[in-house]
Each structure stands twice: as C-alpha cells, then as structure tokens.
Description:
By secondary structure, the chain is mainly α. 84% of the residues lie in helices and 0% in strands.
Amino acid sequence: MRWLRLTVLRRARRQRERLxxxxxxHPVAARLLERSGCLNADEYALARGVSLGLFVGFTPTVGVQxxxxxxxxxxxxxxxxxxxxxSLVSNPLTVAPLYFAFHRTGQWLLAGSSPVVEAATRxxxxxxxxxxxxxxxxxxxxxxxxxxxYVAFLALWRALDVPVRRRQTRRRTDRARRLS
Length: 180
C-alpha cells in the first residue's frame, strides 16, 4: 500500500513540475490564469466554481459544457477544476433522468400560462413546445441548485476549517510553551 501511495505522489509531483515548466515557457497564459483566478484555491473561488459547475451540469448543454465552464470560470473568476468536478452531476448514467425531470418541470411551469403555450404550439409546433419546456425546466432546477451549492460549499468549508485552525493554534501554543 505504501508503494502505491509513493508512486501516486511521485507522478503528481512530476505532473506539477511539467505544468510549472509549461507556465514558464508560456508567460502570457500564466498571467491570464493568474489574473483570471481560474486556478485559485481560496474558498470563494472554489465556491464559485462549484456553483458554476452545478449550473452548467443542470442545463441541457451536453457536449459544450467544458467550453461554457472555461469561459464562465474566466468571467466569474471561479476555480475551473472545481467547476469541472461539480458538473459531473450530469454524467451518462444520470443524463436521461435529468432530462426527464427538466421536461416534466418545464411542462408544469408552462401549464400555468395557457396563452403562451397556445402561441408556442401554433408557431413552433410540438417540438418547439418540448424544447421550451426542457429549457425552462432546466433553468428552474439549475439556478436554485447553483445557489444552494455555493452556500453549502462555503458552510462545509468553514465547518471543516475551524478544527484545522484550532489544531494549528494548539500546536503553536505547545511549541511556544516548550521553547519558553
């Protein structure tokens, strides 16, 4: 088991070294990534990344999700790897139930506005009505989940961060007592 852990750590170290060397060779990309905050690991950038990933993951944008998240990460100064991980809620196993839920939610929301539904049915037909129901339902699910993801990530981060800070403070005070 120790061999496996050391092998993984060694590979991760080599990959970090390759990434740093690439950033040195490409200073424009390094400045862009630094200014945009796409790789920042502070709690707010990570929370924005989780929120962005959940929003994009809960929209019917399969195939272009990574591109949308890349531009969204640059625009909102969000952590791109966190967005990428959070967007995995829409994987090949969950995409069919998600689209079904989007469609049902959209139909339910459109049922209350009968003049709009009738106009959409006449102008675009049944396919247009189904596409509108899918888009509306996905937005109705994606927006609240993004907000909840942001707040929940910050709450979880702070709940896990407090014991770590307490341990660090305790270690400092123990060292100070030993030295004095």
